[in-house]
């Protein structure tokens, strides 16, 4: 029974020394002197704010993308013991001693370092030689722009790592497909493909480009499988379901999990939650939750309420009125009703309070038991301070002459009777008998006489920099929209603050506070409701794109006609720039051009039944182009369609794929176009000389890649190889 002990247990393993050497070199190049400079470098001023908010558990919204990348940066801060106390307000600001600089920059640096062995393995899986794979890895290793981007608290290196991991995982899965389908390793690499794609998208939405490319490649491969007569229908269905699970369902589930963790971590109210709905704000600790705690849930006749417009951009605002009236005539000569002004006011104010009144009764208090307002009920809205009724009539609004003016009615004893009846329509109702609820219900107010809908139209003007004139205190316009097709958010309101009115006396009513029941809104807002709202805000909330000193166009990237100054030492000439290896960038462009020309040539010749290269070499050429050339195209061309401020670092994912194309083209030229021994020898010598120039350029620009040693003004001038480069030279 114990016979196995008679022989020693032997464990054997293979170590790829190429892979080990590349990994070590990648780590050294990215981790060396990682804490230098101990100052805020370029976009660290942007990402650092979010890290601090994570440390303090304060909610935020970043319109640049999903939260996974921010959480990874925050993980570095957490591991380093960062407490979040640092003011991220200036590039170049010295870090205080409580900021763990090395820890915050560690994960991007590790991701950048691991891109080197990943590049090697991708070319091996594409069936190219180890020499070509080693060359690809060295090009990634010596690319100055990739080094710079990975040594700071930035996300591009993390994005590129997950993109390359997804490509490598799919290639390994595909190569296993031929002889070991549904094996453990087959499942591992297929599942890892989906996980890596999800992580790439979770870091930045740019990851969608590579994800779409891999889905397309997987679809083409499966299309070829359908034509394989050796596979049964059951086997094909199993392959289809396995790919659907790994490449669609799991990525979607992981993407949702990023937001779930994000919302679990950030449970405290902060400056960013004001753009969210009242229900979302009330689910956060502090802020609106403190105000709304204990409010009645159901709006009843006699309720005192504030009405917040759901749109909430460019700023949140509440339905508001004050004693001032509209001017008798506007500047353009049009007349008004001279009634009391109604606006949308972007601050909490006592003039934001309204009373929900039953048109058939005079009382302004809640009866016992309360009579709830339901969908379709007719109400009057009485302004709490002035006790005038919300009204609209066929008079043109001040800024929107095609819409009706909204006012609080003043009886001037003229032929303009009050029209103050409004029908409550609950937009997000589940049935036509739903009760109007605090925070949760989104309602429209439809004017009974004219069918106009109460709308905060001032948002449209605020986007263009306009609002009501001085007589309206620059507040936002409220109108009655006659054409009320659909449910535009500017027409939708929700009750934010609410109490049951108890006093008929005006003086007492103004100071009345009442909290009859406890209500926990957070229990009524599910994760999916929070996710949907947050995702929509991320996709639609756009900061004003202003021209940046270092912004550039996609045309500038290919020839590297631009650079970005990341950091400048306050006293010496030491500085860090995002600049690429000129030889590598030029070679990548030449390789892409050669690949395109050769592919067209081969296609034309093959159409004429002339086969210049063997079929297996052709298939290898096509598959490599699909992955590397396709990766470059999908990560570069979409930027020509984007209306946003662009920077050179946006090109780095595309550049990485283009660099991988260089050794592919070189190997193809050496194997199939250099047919004689002499040509092969000359070609090899040229490749060595070319690679030496890559290393020389890397060394030349290392001082502005790593920020040291400090260069003199003359040395900095020598680095300005292009007039368009902005190398910073101090005046003597």
Automatic annotation (TrEMBL):
How would you describe this protein's topology in the membrane?
Multi-pass membrane protein
Q: Name one GO molecular function term.
A: dolichyl-phosphate-mannose-protein mannosyltransferase activity
Known EC number: 2.4.1.109
- Give the UniProt subcellular location, in the record's own words: Endoplasmic reticulum membrane
* Keyword hit for Membrane: yes
> Which InterPro entries does this UniProt record tie to the protein?
ArnT-like_N, MIR_dom_sf, MIR_motif, PMT-like, PMT_4TMC
Catalyses which reaction(s): a di-trans,poly-cis-dolichyl beta-D-mannosyl phosphate + L-seryl-[protein] = 3-O-(alpha-D-mannosyl)-L-seryl-[protein] + a di-trans,poly-cis-dolichyl phosphate + H(+); a di-trans,poly-cis-dolichyl beta-D-mannosyl phosphate + L-threonyl-[protein] = 3-O-(alpha-D-mannosyl)-L-threonyl-[protein] + a di-trans,poly-cis-dolichyl phosphate + H(+)
Q: What class of enzyme is it?
A: transferase
Q: Which UniProt keywords apply?
A: Endoplasmic reticulum, Glycosyltransferase, Membrane, Repeat, Transferase, Transmembrane, Transmembrane helix
- Quick one: where is this thing mainly located? endoplasmic reticulum
Tell me which residues make up the MIR domain. Answer: 296-359, 370-427
Pfam (any one): PMT
Q: Which residues form the signal peptide?
A: none
Q: Name one GO cellular component term.
A: endoplasmic reticulum membrane
Q: Where are the transmembrane segments?
A: 15-33, 68-88, 100-120, 126-142, 154-174, 186-203, 208-226, 246-267, 582-604, 646-666, 678-698
Could you confirm whether the keyword Signal appears in this record? Answer: no
Q: Its pathway?
A: Protein modification; protein glycosylation
Family from the record: Belongs to the glycosyltransferase 39 family.
State the protein's name.
Protein O-mannosyl-transferase 1
Source organism? Centropus bengalensis (lesser coucal)
């Amino acid at each position: 029974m114990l016979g196995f002990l008679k022989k020693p247990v032997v464990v054997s393993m293979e170590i790829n020394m190429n892979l080990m050497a590349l990994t070590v070199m990648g780590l050294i190049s990215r981790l060396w002197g990682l804490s230098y400079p101990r100052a805020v470098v370029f976009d660290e001023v942007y990402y650092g704010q979010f890290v601090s908010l994570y440390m303090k558990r304060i909610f935020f919204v970043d319109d640049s993308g999903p939260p996974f990348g921010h959480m990874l940066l925050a993980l570095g801060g957490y591991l380093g013991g960062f407490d979040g106390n640092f003011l991220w307000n200036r590039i170049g600001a010295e870090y205080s001693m409580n900021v763990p600089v090395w820890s915050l920059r560690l994960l991007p640096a590790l991701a950048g370092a691991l891109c080197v062995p990943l590049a090697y393995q991708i070319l091996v899986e594409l069936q190219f030689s180890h020499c070509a794979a080693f060359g690809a890895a060295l090009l990634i290793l010596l690319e100055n722009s990739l080094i710079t981007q990975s040594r700071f608290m930035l996300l591009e290196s993390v994005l590129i790592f997950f993109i390359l991991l997804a490509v490598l995982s799919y290639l390994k899965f595909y190569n296993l497909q031929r002889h070991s389908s549904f094996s453990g390793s087959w499942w591992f690499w297929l599942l890892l493909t989906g996980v890596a794609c999800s992580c790439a998208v979770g870091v930045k939405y740019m990851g969608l480009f590579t994800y779409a490319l891999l889905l397309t490649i997987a679809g083409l491969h499966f299309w070829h499988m359908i034509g394989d007569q050796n596979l049964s229908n059951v086997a094909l269905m199993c392959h289809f379901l396995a790919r659907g699970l790994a490449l669609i369902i799991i990525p979607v589930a992981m993407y949702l999990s990023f937001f779930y963790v994000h919302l679990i971590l950030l449970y405290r109210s902060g400056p960013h939650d004001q753009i969210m709905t009242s229900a979302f704000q009330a689910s956060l600790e502090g802020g609106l939750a403190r105000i709304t705690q204990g409010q009645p849930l159901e709006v009843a006749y006699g309720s005192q309420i504030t009405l917040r417009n759901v749109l909430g951009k460019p700023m949140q605002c509440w339905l508001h009125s004050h004693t001032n009236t509209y001017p008798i005539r506007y500047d353009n000569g049009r007349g008004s009703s001279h009634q009391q002004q109604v606006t949308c006011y972007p601050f909490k104010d006592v003039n934001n309070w309204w009373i929900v009144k039953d048109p058939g009764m005079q009382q302004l208090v809640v009866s016992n038991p309360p009579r709830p307002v339901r969908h379709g009920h007719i109400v009057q809205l009485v302004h709490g301070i002035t006790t005038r009724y919300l009204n609209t009539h066929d008079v043109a609004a001040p800024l929107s002459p095609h819409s009706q003016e909204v006012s609080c009615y003043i009886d001037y004893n003229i032929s303009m009777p009050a029209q103050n009846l409004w029908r409550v329509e609950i937009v997000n109702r589940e049935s036509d008998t739903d009760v109007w609820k605090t925070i949760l219900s989104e309602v429209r107010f439809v004017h009974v006489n004219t069918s106009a809908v109460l709308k905060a139209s001032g948002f449209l003007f605020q986007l263009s920099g306009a609002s009501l004139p001085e007589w309206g205190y620059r507040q936002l316009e409220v109108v009655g929209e006659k054409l009320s097709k659909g449910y535009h958010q500017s027409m939708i309101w929700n009750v934010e603050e609410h109490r049951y009115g108890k006093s008929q006396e005006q003086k007492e009513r103004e100071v009345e506070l009442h909290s009859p029941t406890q209500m926990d809104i957070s229990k009524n807002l599910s994760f999916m409701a929070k996710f949907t709202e947050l995702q929509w805000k991320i996709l639609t909330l756009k900061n004003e794109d202003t021209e940046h000193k270092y912004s550039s166009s996609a045309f500038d990237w290919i020839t590297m006609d631009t650079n970005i100054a990341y950091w400048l030492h306050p006293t010496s000439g030491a500085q860090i720039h995002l600049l690429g290896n000129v030889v590598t960038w030029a070679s990548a462009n030449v390789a892409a051009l050669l690949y395109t020309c050769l592919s067209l040539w081969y296609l034309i010749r093959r159409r004429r039944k002339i086969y210049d290269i063997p079929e297996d070499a052709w298939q290898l050429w096509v598959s490599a182009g699909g992955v590397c050339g396709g990766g470059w195209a999908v990560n570069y061309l979409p930027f020509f369609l984007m209306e946003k401020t662009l920077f050179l670092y946006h090109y780095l994912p595309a550049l990485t794929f283009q660099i991988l194309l260089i050794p592919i083209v070189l190997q193809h030229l050496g194997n199939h176009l250099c047919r004689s021994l002499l040509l092969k020898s000359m070609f090899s010598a040229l490749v060595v000389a070319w690679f030496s120039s890559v290393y020389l350029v890397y060394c030349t620009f290392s001082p502005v890649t790593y920020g040291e040693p400090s260069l003199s003004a003359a040395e900095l001038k020598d680095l300005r190889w292009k007039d368009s480069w902005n190398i910073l030279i101090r005046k003597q």
